[in-house]
Design brief:
- This protein has 588 residues and is mainly α.
- It has 22 helices and twelve strands.
- A hairpin with a 5-residue loop joins strand 7 and strand 8.
- The protein has a two-stranded antiparallel ribbon with strand order 1-5.
Length: 588
């Protein structure tokens, strides 16, 4: 079933309506108005368009079409962002290297778009429950308006979640700008924000339907609300860089939030008719997201709807480079590169490795030309899986961005159970092994033994989440909430140095690889885990592999990361200039 139906069909109408009610910048709050709130929220169709206008702020290059999905989450211990080694440029390269200044060119527009989303959601949250139809309409009108109310609450939670996990304590209006008595707001403690959002999502869960109770589209349903509530609870219970102490801390009451996460995940797991794992890990991406189709198993609980050739550079910015027929120039940026130690952290039989990573670029007829190891890119959204195929040089692919998958629900449940019970329960192990078994093609005999102590099971979860979600913008933020980002960056550089020096456990890896050209699949002449043969096999082409590693490349990974500083970003300079009540924190 093709996607892009409900959300894109009403986008134009919703933008016309909400552009008159919301603002582009939360500090610029006097837009002209052509429609007042009474008109916009007088009918169910108009209210629907207003909520879809809030959805719209998730999409586009300043949100999950590029910056929030493919720039902000890097560098981490899996992949790195823009790799040029020129001088700092105060743009995306400095973002990846943790060399951020408040004037960085990638900060202001995403920050403003997220607040525009908050504003649009606030307008809907205020007005929809106040509609006469909300109380006195027909049964169907009440159901539709309740759903819209729940969607708006969930969208606001997602906008604020992204703001908090990137900037920490922030101004947090929960009513429309027109109703605020003080527009130059001070920062609100993130715990207060999280608590409000977790409460809001409990309400939203009662207002929205399950996936199969409504038409299949990209709108929020009950599973998405519950999964997001679980995620926010784990972040509320996790570590965070604090303004007062200036260090990473976790609050003493964190187990309360792990219980919330556990309970929400458990409830989703009891509704396997709504959401479960797709039996094929590859199909989630190749046959679903990359083919503009909704996953039939409901594995993707929450995704950002994009318009083809308008809203998203996913697959162009991050994946392997490619040609299209009739164009002589190679397309795509290939900017998200796989760290060699991440590639080799996968078991050789784990099918997720060759879905998550792509060591090639594509010719016009989709023959694979293998790249050197250091040019291997993120692979889940690769251009040659996009169907219908790209046929022009346009950068906008329109691929949706997955925010939460059912495998995340299973692993969040396992993590919470392990923490709450001081070790993994039988149910926690079963959920963990369900994800891992799918990663090995359904063969449970290949997954190895699951640890049974609290510390070892937690370490297994840290690894499994990496194998499962590589390239999905999750890893950096997981490591922050565990207070492991600095540790993992240091470990990665150390392991890369061992790999370069041919030290254990990397001493037998090939320095070069040979592949068969003019093939639509990557065909190696020898093992990725054994030394390079002394003689080149006939009909194969050599490419640099481990030999390509250099000290410069290794030191470039998260080059200027500083613990108790780089876990959060500075506020955009324009924001602190405009609001006298705001100042930089965290050493910026």
């Amino acid at each position: 079933m093709m996607k892009k139906n409900t959300l894109t069909r009403l986008t134009v109408v919703s933008l016309l309506l909400l552009s008159t009610l919301s603002c582009n910048n939360y500090l610029n709050l006097d837009p002209p108005s052509a429609f007042d709130e009474n008109y916009v929220f007088s009918t169910v169709p108009n209210a629907t368009s207003a909520v879809l206008g809030a959805y719209d702020r998730l999409a586009g290059l300043q949100a999950y079409g590029s910056r929030l999905s493919m720039m902000y989450p890097y560098d981490n211990d899996e992949m790195v962002g823009v790799l040029n080694t020129t001088a700092p440029d105060n743009s995306s390269r400095d973002l990846s290297r943790y060399n951020l200044n408040p004037t960085n060119a990638q900060l202001r527009l995403p920050f403003e778009q997220l607040y525009a989303g908050v504003e649009r959601a606030n307008i809907c949250i205020k007005n929809i429950p106040a509609m006469d139809l909300y109380q006195n309409g027909s049964g169907e009108e009440k159901i539709q308006l309740q759903r819209l109310h729940g969607e708006a609450l969930t969208l606001r939670a997602q906008f604020y979640f992204e703001l908090v996990r990137n900037w920490g304590d922030i101004p947090a209006p929960f009513e429309p700008s027109i109703d605020q008595t003080e527009l130059f707001m001070d920062k609100t403690d993130r715990d207060t924000i999280y608590d409000r959002l977790i409460s809001d999502l409990a309400l939203a869960s009662d207002l929205v339907p399950w996936r199969t109770e409504v038409a299949s589209d990209e709108r929020i349903t009950k599973g998405a609300v519950k999964a997001l509530r679980a995620r926010l609870a784990l972040y509320r219970g996790g570590y965070s860089l604090r303004r007062v102490s200036g260090i990473m801390e976790r609050r003493p009451d964190y187990l309360k939030y792990y219980q919330i996460a556990r309970d929400e995940c458990f409830d989703i797991m009891q509704h396997r008719d709504q959401h479960t794992l797709n039996p094929s890990f590859q199909a989630v991406f190749k046959d679903g997201i990359d083919s503009y189709k909704i996953d039939p198993f409901g594995e993707v609980l929450f995704e950002v709807a994009m318009g083809r050739e308008t809203d998203s550079n996913i697959g162009y910015y991050d994946g392997p480079r490619f040609y299209v027929p009739g164009n002589t120039s190679m397309l795509g940026n290939g900017q998200i590169r796989v760290i060699p130690t991440y590639f080799y952290s996968f078991d050789s039989l784990d099918i997720r490795r060759d879905v998550t990573t792509a060591p090639y670029y594509n010719s016009p007829d989709y023959f694979k030309t293998v790249q050197p190891l250091l040019n291997m890119t993120s692979g889940k959204f690769r251009s040659d899986w996009i169907s219908p195929r790209l046929s022009s040089a346009i950068q906008a692919t329109g691929l949706n961005w997955p925010l939460i998958r059912f495998s995340d629900v299973l692993l969040m449940f396992s993590e919470a159970e392990n923490e709450l019970h001081d070790g993994p329960t039988t149910e926690a192990i079963a959920a963990f092994e369900e994800v891992r078994t799918r990663g090995f093609g359904g063969d449970i005999d290949l997954i190895g033994s699951t640890p049974t102590t609290k510390e070892d099971f937690f370490e297994a979860i840290v690894k499994e989440r990496s194998f499962e979600f590589g390239g999905e913008g999750i890893r950096k933020y997981d490591l922050i909430r565990w207070n492991l980002l600095g540790t993992k960056i240091t470990q990665t550089r150390e392991e890369l140095t061992k790999m370069r020096n041919r030290q254990a456990p990397y001493e037998n890896l090939p320095q070069h690889m040979y592949y068969k050209p003019s093939s639509t699949e990557v065909i190696w002449s020898h093992s990725l885990y054994q030394p390079t043969p002394s003689r080149a096999p006939s009909g194969f082409t050599r490419v640099n592999w481990i030999v390509a590693l250099t000290d410069v490349w290794i030191n470039n990974v998260a080059q200027l990361f500083q613990p108790n500083h780089s876990e959060l970003m500075p506020l955009p300079q324009s924001v602190t200039d405009a609001n006298p009540n705001l100042k930089q924190d965290y050493g910026y």
